[in-house]
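Bench log. Compound arrived from synthesis this morning; before running ITC I wanted a structural hypothesis for how iron/sulfur cluster sits in the protein. Inputs:
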Amino acid sequence: MQSTFRRIPRDGEKKDKPSPLPRHVASRGRRKSVERVSPIPFGIGFVKPHNYWEVVRTAWENKRNPLFTWRILRDGVCDGCALGTTGMRDFTMKGIHLCTVRLNLLPLNTMGPLDVRVLDDVEALRSVSSKDLRALGRLPYPMFRRRGDPGFHRISWDEALGIAARRIRAARPDRIAFFVTSRGMTNESYYVANKVARFLGTNHIDNSSRPCHSPSTTGLKETIGVAASTCSYTDWIGSDLIVFFGSDVPNNQPVTTKYLYYAKEQGTKIAVVNPMREPGLERYWVPSVPTSALFGTRFADAFFPVHTGGDIAFINGVLKHMIEKGWINSAFVANHTNGFEALQAAIERQSWEELERQSGVRRQAMFDFAQMYSRARTAVFVWSMGITHHRFGVDNVKAIVNLGLAGGIVGRIKCGLMPIRGHSGVQGGSEMGANPRDFGLGFPVDEQNADRFQGIWGFRPPTTHGMTAVGMIDAAHAGGLDVLYMAGGNFLETLPEPEYVREALARVPLRIHQDIVLTSAMLVDPAYAVLLFPAQTRYEQRGGGTQTSTERRVYFSPEVPGRRIGEARAEWEIFIQLGERVRPEASHLIHFEDGAGVRAEIAKAVPTYDGIQNLREKGDAFQYGGPRLCEGGTFPTPDGRARFTVVLPPDLDIPDGQFLLSTRRGKQFNSMIQGEVDPLLGAGRRDVLMGQEDAAVLHLHEGDAVLLSNELGSYRGRLRFAPIRPRNVQIYWPEGNVLIRRGIVDPACEMPDYNALVRIEPVTASERRP
Ligand code: SF4
């Protein structure tokens, strides 16, 4: 694969003569006028984020260590979402790249150590919210708690590693599992975790892309041969059309609003396929663009309010129109794809009545979309959790691929398929092999690849598929795990049925939690013991580290000088030290002196990442595969062609008296809640979002206390009107996990289905009384 290496000039270096216009605009000529939201400045009277106030507030919260904070912002790669930065710049636009998500996460990187005496009494901590647990401070020392102990006590690293090593040595390798999450995790840490897990004889290693974009990885790989975005963010700007499927980028990747502003200046049209008419995609006040900050910018040109899970029916309906009208890109389909005839035949058998019922939108709306798409010479499709969080998430992704291939929008400039990522490190997690079914990007677990990695590593990895995150929790619940090592993350707050997860965690004899702060999962009583391993942030780790963004750009984040926390260690070093204690006789096989050594081996083990060995300073980055994959319609599949897939709409009939519930994110970063009010909707964490039409049928009014229930449990909240399609409701995640049934997963990738059928009724005055 071709890669592009670029470096943003460092301070003091000669830069290109600055253009008065952003980079992409300067290269493409005239700007178009962008539609404003309101003549009243600063969106007064609208529900919207108050970004300037947020900046002041977070600056105050980060005041304790201003120089260190500034260095992290100036030199580090953002550890928020996967858009990617180097310092406060990026490769898409000129100007500052910064948002309040990053500022809100900064205290995790700058705060001081917690007083470990708070861990003396676990019971007292159980009533503390996760937000307040984090605010207690950074974990400074290894801590240990045996079953029956009231709390944790401090131990040395030597003791901690010794306890863990003894337990691992005594366990069968198939009873050991690793989960590696991704907020600040570097590629180096993922890679070493992968190697050490295999060194210890297990393929039970997974990462947080499982409940995130695992359907995208599977769906893309099986259709176009690559499991990543085929295009760059620059392809958004000046594309004729961007479509967001189940994605709310203003909330999750806020700086995309700036990209969208520049796209609108270039005349890009924006369409949204989503049950909720997301206000942030309808209009936004981009704080760093003066005219937008003052008067707002209208983004979406068209909304298509499908049912939750109605995307396949909608897309099949769009394709049906395109086939009937002769709008398929026949040359692209004939020259670069297989399987279109079978898809066409399947779609022709689907009636309009069926497609309307299952999608939730009229045939005319599907026609409007088909026409908009067919008139666009270029288009980019972007999707996220609204597409993947289903038991048919892989089919959803394949339907989007079908639509993209039918229009020939892969492998061309200003075109592409982009599963946009939420965590900064998540793209690299599976690519580095922290995955039960791959040793690394392009190398599935099998005998042949085990031979290959034996040649690189000097030991042979196991060749049976490991367990996914979902499988690990089921195994733990069934008493099938002796050691569960969790580097970051919190299954209690991310997987369905929290009580089941709690039981599962409690049944594991030894749990190891490697983290920078306290989490609620650490407080679960163990079957034998719990170990806490204090980790460094990516900015503190010796020799820096790298991260891969959604657009496949691998960024170097340097080590930032400044204060360090107690005895916290680099995440990749902890994995190595544990592996060395378990198998001291073979320790040389997994030893690395520094991050540069890890990067040198990654370049050999995962050739797609060739170039990572050259990253060593701030601003160093390369984009594996170049700006676009599958260029010219050549796909990395055995025959060089992409595959259409026959995907049938799932049966989503909503029984009378019930509603289809999905979960959403508010002012939060993944499961880390930063505020009680979602600034884009003005909704509180316990609000139940419902359309006015449905509320009228139930004789409910805004503000009414309501009870949501199903066979799993119940959830009390307050009704709030929202622009959501009838019979669909939303509550916030992870609170809503109490209504989400475990065990309903996509069979191809074990993505949990985060939706449920619920009944809704008013909470009467008598029920409200204690
Ligand atoms: S948009 Fe994402 S990458 Fe950019 S500053 Fe915000 S959190 Fe960081």
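What the model suggests: Residues 78, 80-81, 83-85, 97-99, 101-102, 253-255 surround iron/sulfur cluster (CB under 6 Å). The mean pLDDT is 93.
ITC booked for Thursday regardless.
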